[in-house]
Amino acid sequence: MFILKIGGSSGINYDLIADDIAALVKNGEKMVVVHGGSALTNEVAEKLGHPPQFVTSVSGYTSRRTDRRTLEIFEMVYCGQMNKGLVEKLQSRGVDAIGLSGLDGRLWEGKRKAAIKIVQNGRRRVLRDDFTGKVERVNTDLLDLLLSAGYVPVLTPPAISYDGEAINVDGDRAAAATAIALGAETLVILSNVPGLLEEFPDEHTLIRHIPAQSLDKFMAVAQDRMKKKVMGAQEALAGGLTRIIFADGRVENPVRRALNGEGTVIE
Question: Where are the domains of the chain?
Fold first, then answer.
């Protein structure tokens, strides 16, 4: 059993990914799928007159500014079009997929951040009306129940706070938390690049192998969203996973190719 995280950036081919998931399931493979939806969320937010805002933390990580209206749009896209669209693709290929958000059954729980320290125009600011957090607890009973009944869980943010509020969480780190909680050995993260690139965006500079103990050194190489993926990989390794793979979600047989070692393999 492994965890598959599918990114939400433009260019990812969900039909090819669904084909590959179906082939693996028919061969008896068990998996939990986690997906994003950032590109479509940005597009919908623009059309609804509430364009996306991104903030940079004092530690240098960029994330989505999530006020209440942004959270509503986020739920509309992630829990609606993206989640049910992927479930539909899988069902049409004979995969008995079931789509859930982290809210459902308190599948992903965590604490809502009381405040976020950011850097804006060179000055430090504190945001207190942001609905963000981190997955700290996974409802493995629910996931085990679904897996044992033959379903493929298809999961998406948001998560739920301990106080019952929806919170935006990073999908890569949520996938890592899920992998740790289920005792998985492998986490595959598909995006719109072939893996971690030494000189982004030059795809010829793909880093093919990273020893787990050396991963910290590659954080400086990671650009933009890839920083969160590397952070998720660090957390997964610390939690007991033995292999994390950053791979290309635009190609045929993307999951099997990743499992066979294509992309950036961290182990």
Answer: 2-266
